[in-house]
Each structure stands twice: as structure tokens, then as C-alpha cells.
Amino acid sequence: MTFKSDIQIAQESKLQDIREIGKKLGLGEAELELYGKYKAKIDYNILKKAADKKAAKLILVTAINPTPAGEGKTTTTIGLSDALSRLGNNTIVALREPSLGPVFGVKGGAAGGGYAQVVPMEDINLHFTGDFHAIGAANNLLSALLDNHIQQGNALAIDTRKITWKRVMDMNDRQIRNIVCGLGGTANGVPREDGFDITVASEVMAIFCLANDIIDLKERLGKIIIGYTRENKPVTAKDLNANGAMAALLKDALKPNLVQTLEGTPAFIHGGPFANIAHGCNSVIATKMAMHFADYVVTEAGFGADLGAEKFIDIKCRMSGLKPDAVVIVATVRALKYNGGVAKDKLGEENLVALEQGLPNLLKHVENVTKVYGLPAVVAINRFPLDTEAELALVEEKCKALGANVALSEVWADGGKGGVTLANEVIRLIETGENNFQYVYDVNLPIKEKIKTIAKRVYGAEDVVFTPSANKEIKNLEDLGFIDTPICMAKTQYSLSDDASKLGRPEGFKITIKQVKVSAGAGFIVAITGDIMTMPGLPKVPSAERIDVDENGRISGLF
């Protein structure tokens, strides 16, 4: 049997004019800012004028820890949205925008797969409406103003050895993680060490996704700490008079992007912080706008429930007042067998022993969602053709013991039709499930206690080890008043621990905090563990080598 690639399916689909998608939301052409025939932006100020706001139900899609076997979280999110639409519900899917780094690196795009995609997938994966470029420009404007201030006399007495702000680029490029800039004589600036992060790791991205409007955005940008003076006093973007110009660069990007699924379900795609580095959720503005226009909103949080979902709960919900009505935890039998020690080329063979050994990873995520976050959950098994009935029955048995039902998801092959069973279970959960929503920690606890609470309750760690430099940074931040601040953990996505090689549900491990820094504008403290990089590198064979375009402008190789 010959399978079509994701890009073939997307290119062969018949898209509706974006004005028709707008009509499904009750929007006329005058309320859409068109980017061609299939993309548009919507001014967030429309929410201030609207009187008939809906009380939409918010569905969060998360997953087990990712593996090379694949889980299909975004595909499931999109397929579930189409299934809810098929059942006659007014539904919107709210997703993050893809970063060019993973598109050209290992992971590929983030527009779903098979017959559960958002389109136009090439545009969404490549530049889209230019939001990331605007975010990168705002970030780098602050860098330019900072270095110019130092060059022009340094009236703020900034210590060039204590600058914490980095430049960014939306590409995986290890070569520029650490650089020396300002070389070439006095006319070319003051020499200092610098470096680049990937755009999605920028604090500007986090601020962009947590801001409620342009004024909130500008105020948050002004709070960014770019470094410290010789007396160890923090220096902010507002001190450099930078936040107004930065906000000006972002004013249009702040408007959510409207596109569609293959089945014509409206989709808001906006913002894109990584979940292993940043908080991993789409913008608050887009989520709230979706909830205004729909009865059901399906959104996702990056990577597993230990990272994206925890940050969705403790950062996004805490700051926005949002609360999920139900959670979907995506897993595959293949990925669970991989967690149980099966080699990737043997995952198609039935192996109940390995499956049982790998199941604790899924069960820990179920436990986190239902017991730690207090939310009703359903496990969505993204079914592969070689999954056996015995394997599926084993997953269902173990999940039900924790109070979570299991529903098969076949949206990759059948689109919304393949997600109807899952959709019905989600609706049942929303209507009858027990929702005892709670945060993981009390935000007023000391910084160390908050980190330990996440590590122990969510990851299952035995303890947390803080390096001397992390201890010093924590004391400095608490002295500066950053006490009642949420924590954003930077941790490998591949394991519940900070060691990517520890699969399943590791026990008796310790989390090591190497570095702690504040993102004052975003409103959280970042705790960095393990070997987390804020500027990824390309693999030996990057996806970019398979991407091409023909004489008609038709792109191939994207996935």
C-alpha cells in the first residue's frame, strides 16, 4: 500500500477562502487582515468590543515523553478538533507556530500529519505571517540599544561582564552560541562576550505569548533585565528606553493568525515558545479569542505532561485565569514499547512484556494530570497498523486502574472521522468528570521549595541538587524581590528526569539545577537542568537537505 506524504496530502486538498472561515466565527471581511487567500490576522481589540462572550470549554492535549517512535500530539489535537466539528460543535483549534530551527533540523514542521493537518502547511512551517521575524527583530533591537548605550558613554554604568541579554535567530546554529562582538577598534563598539539563543527561547517570545494586549506587552517588555551595573543593580529595557520601540515592532504580530484544518475547522496559530526551554504554549490572546468564538477550544502544550502541561497549569493558567475542562494524554503503543527497551526497528512486533515495562511512563503522566493537576483525563492511543488487540487491551486496563479511560485515535488516516470516539469521550469527561483543578505549588514559597515541589511531585525525583552558582543566583533573585514568581523548568523532554537516557518511570534520581535566571517581563524564573541548550544545533543529516522547490514554486520534503 502506498502512503501519501503529509505535504502531498496538504497540497492536494481544496482549501476554503479564509473569508469563508471567518464567516464561521461571525467575522466579516472588514474584520480580517488578509495575508493572501488562506491566511488572515484578527485584531485582538475585537474582544473588548464584544458583549456576547461565550463560556467555551477548554481541552488541553498533552502526551507522554517524546521518543523517536513518535506520538502525534499535534496530529491528535487537530483531528480531535475536526471530530468535535463533525459532531456539530462550534470548535476552534489553538496551536503554536512552528520554529524554523526544528523544521530544518530533526523534528520537522508542526502542522499535524496525514489527514489531520492545518493548512496551508508550507506557509505555516516557513515564515507564516512573519511573527517570529518580528519577535527576533524586537529582541535584537534591545541588544543593539544596549551595546550602543555602552558605546556612547555607558551612563547606566552597566558591567559588560554581567550582561545577561543575548541576541537571537530562528535557526539551529551551534556556531554562534558563544561569540565575541565589538571587535575591530573603537568605532565598532566595545568588545565583550555575547551569544545567540534561538528565537523561541527569547524572553520576548514568552512575553508575546503571555501578554493580554499591547499595553501589557509594552509594560512587560520594559521589565526585561538585560544585565547588572557594577554595583550589581539590575538594568531593564525600560532603563534603555527600548520597550516602546520593541512594542511597535510587535504590534501587528500580536494579532492572532487565522487558518484552517483540512476539514475547514478554524485554527488560531500564534506564538511558539519551546517547552523544554520556555513555557511551551500558544499565546494567551489567541486562546482567549478562540474561547470567545467557539463552544470547544482544543489546544496543546509542548512535549510531555511533565513539561508543557505543568507550565500550562502553573504559568499560563495562573497568569491568565484559564482552566482546562478536560485533558487528553497522547501515547502510542510503539513509543511505550520503546520506553520498555525495544529497539526502534523492532517496534512493529507484539511485545507485551516490553509494553508493560514502558507503561509506567504513561501512567506517571496520567497520575500527574489526574492527581497532581486534579483534572479529568482520557488517554488517546494514536493507533498504528501493527498494534495488536492484546497490546491495546493492556494499555486500557492499566489506565483505567488510575481512573483514566482510553480511546483509540485514528485521525492520521481518517481525519475527524477517526477521532469521533475520542471526541465523545472528551465531551463525556467535560460533562461528568471530576474537575479539581489545582496548581502544583504555592507561588509564595521560596524559589528552592517551588523547584523541589515540581521535581518531586511531577517528575518523581528523590531530591534536587543546586550547584554553587545556582545557589548564588537564587539568593540574588530573592534579595531583588522575585519571591512570588512561578518557575519555568528547562529540562530534557525525553525523560521524566534530567537525563535523556532514563526512559520509562525512573526512580531514586536527583535533579541538578545548574543555573537560575529571571525572565522578569515574562513573569517567571527559569531553572536550567542537565545539558539543556538555548540554541540547538543541526543533526548530521538535517531535514533541510531533503527540502526543495521546483520551477513552479512547489515545495517538497516538508513534513
Could you please describe the fold and organization of this structure?
The protein is α/β, with parallel strands linked by helices. Helix content is 35%, strand content 19%. The chain has 19 helices and 25 strands. The strands form 6 sheets. Strands 1, 2, 3, 4, 5, 6, 14, 15, 16, 17, 18 and 19 form a 12-stranded mixed β-sheet that branches. It has a 4-stranded mixed β-sheet with strand order 20-22-23-21. Strand 22 and strand 23 (524-529) form a beta hairpin. Helix 7 (131-151) runs antiparallel to helix 10, helix 9 runs antiparallel to helix 10 (243-250) and helix 13 (333-339) crosses helix 14. The longest helix has 21 residues, at 131-151. The chain starts with 5 loop residues before the first helix and ends with a strand. The relative contact order is 0.16.
Question: Unreliable segments (pLDDT under 50, ≥5 consecutive)?
Answer: none
Average of pLDDT? 94
Number of extended strands: 25
Largest sheet: 12 strands, mixed
> Over all CA atoms, what is the radius of gyration?
23 Å
The helix-and-strand class reads: alpha/beta
Mass-distribution shape: globular
Helix content: 25-40%
User: Helix segment count?
Assistant: 19
- The proportion of residues in beta strands is 15-25%
Q: In angstroms, what separates the terminal alpha carbons?
A: 20 Å
